[in-house]
Design goal:
The complex is a heterodimer of chains A (544) and B (99). With 544 residues, chain A is α+β, with helices and mostly antiparallel strands. Chain A has 4 domains: 6-109, Sulfite Reductase Hemoprotein, domain 2, CATH 3.90.480.20; 134-285, Sulfite Reductase Hemoprotein, domain 1 (2-Layer Sandwich), CATH 3.30.413; 311-393, Alpha-Beta Plaits; 408-543, Sulfite Reductase Hemoprotein, domain 1, CATH 3.30.413. In chain A, 37% of the residues lie in helices and 17% in strands. Chain B has helices at residues 36-45, 70-77; strands spanning 2-7, 14-17, 22-23, 50-59, 65-67. Chain B starts with a strand and ends in a 22-residue tail after the last helix. Chain B has 99 residues and is α+β, with helices and mostly antiparallel strands. Classes of the chains: A alpha+beta (544), B alpha+beta (99). The complex binds protoporphyrin IX containing FE and iron/sulfur cluster. Protoporphyrin IX containing FE binds next to loops of chain A.
């Protein structure tokens, strides 16, 4: 894992002290809320429905045990004993006191963490593949590239006041596990025919009220020129992005309005100019960064295979663990989606337990997934059973990865001040309705995603089944969408028809799954059947 | 009725104007008529409240106060999915009041 150098630590520490002073001045009345609000947002502190909300950055979703334990301790000490892991691989606390916020940031700084650039019109925390460094199918580990971009984008003065927020995802395999093409910039690290590593740039994706899938802007940028290319992409956006209208200010609108070809032309022009300045990071610096990720301590010479005699364990191992690039290991996904539970929430005790388990069983590494689960990336197959027993005892062994119970849900109207409708109760009702494990497995891969408003924090546009909460004359109403995907075959879900009440939508989903079960061809996932049949049979079954 | 709400500056708690100060209980909220702007300006300036605003609500025969918008009812109660953290943790059905 990357470790702060003296500059990283000094910057973060200085920021904590600066914020301590700002909070003191606000409490003393020396500055008004209008003056203070942008300052607190710069430190991830929002005011939400019930209290202040703190969003902590988890760069590319990677944590060590010490950091994870601190997240659990913060939940206990300053919040109400739990935290919410988000689709951007971060964690949010819902009950923060302004008075405590500086000390929380100071505590985070002791474990090389912060909440900088988790809000505002800047480059946000960079997300990545949650199996990075473990995935059998990756070209290289994408995280050194994500880290390079993190360093470049942290406190980058030119991009501190963009037309709108800016989100970057970096992956390095053909299987997209990070919704890469639904980001402002999606970067896929690839190898060209000559065997050189470089970056393929997708620019102008996003969700929100105008979902768009990012087109390829450049097929191959040599690895060390990646930062310069990103700089060119942002510079063109910063210059021409629409600041007159918040709803048209994202880069996706610019790329769409001027067209990918014209956008590319301008980026290339800017890129050519930047290259003349020689700002590319030296190879040695990249190697210094990459060395942190190179070898977490995997043993070689282990055999594949493990004792599967306990049937409950075998079901979990099949559903929630995935192949590892190293023989004898698996990557484990800890589901934060128990039937009837709150997607992404974990108690302080669970968070600390996962920290302990990572230290014992996963070479001191954890990942937060954009699907609001936790990954232990490097588990020896011979340890899987012992690990499962401990998870099971803590209510963390739900075997539902990528099944209908593995729901993404944004905080919705239970916590979020922008919401139109609640998301979490729906997730609870749906996962309870489909709680029967055999039933879920019979349905197979089915990604259900719920947002409480058009901002789409819950990725509803990318759900095989998506749900969008809307406000219909003061009551909660839910629209049903079908056919979205955020994997390598990214597609945007389409609205089926008129919306539903809370119970109505749960029934409608059951109807949709029944149509699938009746009509699926051999080996088809829900998404495949939907793509083959189109909307009509589903619509017919729901509305008659 | 018109009532006033906001968050306590330091703790962030949701609070309601009770005529003299800020209560955590919505049922303490009083009708401010058309004095909303004056009260809020004074209270914000004195840092006794943050992010405050006026809403309409309805007073029940039993004296309870029900904000007209669901968002403010959830603010008044707490997250409906965590009755244990709501203002009335002893009443697991308190969430029904929201809907
Ligand atoms: C509760 C406080 C939150 C607020 C006020 C908030 C606000 C917003 C807004 C305004 C947008 C739309 C931006 C745009 O289209 O320009 C947005 C998008 C998004 N937010 Fe949130 N959000 C919140 C929580 C979350 C949480 C908890 C997650 C993760 C579960 C999240 C992840 C995202 C994602 C993935 C998008 C859409 C992707 C994109 O187009 O950028 N947000 N959010
Ligand atoms: S989608 Fe809407 S309701 Fe859900 S967290 Fe985002 S802004 Fe809030």
């Amino acid at each position: 894992m990357y470790q702060y150098d003296q500059y990283d630590q000094a910057m973060v520490d200085a920021r904590v002290e600066e914020f301590r002073g700002q909070v003191a001045r606000r409490m003393a009345g020396e500055i008004t809320e209008d003056q203070f609000k942008p300052l607190r947002l710069k430190n991830g502190l929002y005011l939400q429905l019930h209290a202040y909300m703190l969003r902590v950055a988890i760069p590319y979703g990677t944590l060590n045990g010490r950091q994870m334990r601190m997240l659990g301790d913060i939940a206990d000490k300053y919040d109400r004993g739990y935290g919410h892991f988000t689709t951007r691989q971060n964690i949010q606390y819902n009950w923060i006191k302004l008075e405590d916020a500086p000390q929380i940031l100071a505590d985070l700084a002791t474990v090389e963490m912060h909440a900088i650039q988790t809000s505002g019109n800047c480059i946000r925390n960079i997300s990545s593949d949650h199996f990075a460094g473990a995935a059998a199918d990756e070209v290289v580990d994408p995280r050194p590239y994500a880290e390079l971009l993190r360093q470049w984008s942290s406190f980058h003065p030119e991009f501190d006041y963009l037309p709108r927020k800016f989100k970057i995802a970096v992956i390095a395999s053909d299987t997209d596990r990070a919704a890469m093409r639904l980001h402002d910039i999606g970067i896929q690290i690839v190898k060209n025919d000559a065997g050189e590593i470089g970056a393929r740039f997708y620019v102008g994706g996003g969700m929100g009220r105008t979902p768009m899938i990012a087109p390829v802007i450049r097929e191959f940028v040599p690895a060390l020129q990646m930062v310069s290319y990103a700089e060119a992409c942002l510079r063109v956006y910063n210059r021409y992005g629409r600041r007159d209208n918040k709803y048209k200010a994202r880069i996706k609108i610019l790329v769409h309005e001027i067209g990918a070809d014209e956008y590319r032309r301008q980026v290339e022009e800017e890129f050519a100019h930047i290259l003349t300045l020689g700002l590319e990071p030296p190879q040695a610096e990249f190697e210094r960064i990459a060395a942190f990720f190179a070898d977490p301590g995997l043993e070689s010479g282990l055999a594949d295979g493990y004792d599967r005699s306990d049937p409950d364990f075998a079901v979990w191992a099949d559903q929630n663990t995935t192949p590892h690039k190293q023989a004898g290991y698996r990557a484990v996904v800890i589901s934060l989606k128990p039937a009837g539970g709150i997607p992404g929430d974990a108690t302080a005790d669970q968070i600390r337990l996962m920290a302990d388990l990572a230290e014992v069983y996963s070479l001191d590494e954890l990942r937060v997934t954009h699907t609001q689960n936790i990954v232990l990336p490097h588990v020896k197959q011979s340890d899987l059973y012992a690990l499962w027993q401990k998870l099971d005892a803590a209510g963390l062994a739900t075997a539902n990865l990528d099944l209908i119970g593995d729901i993404i849900a944004c905080p919705g109207l239970d916590y979020c001040s922008l919401a139109n409708a609640r998301s979490i109760p729906l997730a609870q009702k749906i996962s309870a309705r489909f709680a029967e494990p055999e039933r879920q497995r019979a349905l197979g891969e089915l990604k259900l995603k719920i947002s409480g408003c058009i901002n789409a924090c819950g990725h509803h546009h990318a759900g095989n089944i998506g749900i969008l909460g809307v406000d219909r004359k003061g009551t909660e109403n839910y629209q049903l969408l079908l056919g979205g995907s955020e994997a390598a075959d990214t597609s945007l879900a389409q609205i089926v028809g008129p919306g539903f009440s809370e119970d109505g939508i749960v029934d409608a989903i059951e109807t949709v799954t029944n149509v699938y079960l009746a009509q699926r061809a051999e080996g088809e996932r829900f998404l495949d059947t939907y793509r083959r049949l189109g909307m009509a049979p589903f619509k017919e079954a729901i509305y008659g | 009725m018109k009532i006033l709400t906001g968050n306590d500056l330091g703790s962030g708690h949701v609070v309601w104007w009770d005529g003299q100060g800020w209560s955590r209980h919505v049922h303490d909220a009083v009708d401010v008529g058309d004095a909303a702007d004056t009260i809020l300006a004074a209270e914000e300036a004195a840092r006794r409240v943050n992010a405050s605003y006026a809403i309409s609500a309805t007073k029940g025969a039993d004296g309870t106060v029900r904000p007209d918008h669901i968002k403010d009812r959830i603010r008044a109660l707490g997250p409906t999915v965590r009755p244990d953290l709501a203002l009335q943790p002893s009443d697991p059905h308190s969430g029904n009041w929201v809907i």
